[in-house]
Design goal:
The chain has 248 residues and is an alpha+beta fold. The chain has nine helices and eight strands.
Length: 248
Amino acid sequence: MSGHNKWSTIKRKKGANDAARAKIFTKIGRELAVAVKNGGPDPNNNAKLRDVIAKAKQNNVPNDNIERMLKKAAGDTDSTNYEEIIYEGYGPSGVAVVVEALTDNRNRTAGEVRHYFDKAGGNMGNPGSVTFMFSRQGVIIIEKEDTDEDQLMEDALEAGATDFLTDDEDIFEIRTEPNDIGLVRDDLEAKGYTIVSSEPAYIPSTYVRLDSQDDMKKMSRMIDMFDENEDVQNIYHNWENEDEYEEQ
């Protein structure tokens, strides 16, 4: 998503009701399990696990929950095998959509994803049909309140950031190479900055504006359906004026 849309998503998650927060916790637990299985239970030796733990804390997962998730993942020798899959497609009026999933049943998830695209008046595409319009980057979000812009920009670039964006009224957005996000995040946290969000993302190179209220409603509902699906970890799109619909 664009920086502005990304911030909208973060605010929506932070204000989620108990049922929605439970789904977020479940998704993060699945990511923790995969990270432990692939790299071991020690975050000091597993950069991916460190990133997921940071994501859990940013999403207000209590420390006790994180510890339980880690113990369960480390001790579960017969844990479910989750497969990482990228789905691509188009929403209404040609909005490009990239969906990241962790699933233990490829056929089930593919069928559900296809259904969401169809219900929104779009269609699921083949691998590569949409991702060429996005670039993979690390995205770190810091709220502007009480943050010195010049100092943060200097600190971020010194830590290895590739870009520093200030267009949004509420947040600073720091871009990194995907594999550098943890290093930059840890460096900024060590300097006292509070990180709202830090994770790799698909950043669109072009955007689509929706003018039809019906298209906006369909696109918003499609995003909600993806968010509600426990197999879906993230959804990215190039819908430019998402916030205009949310404010109505």
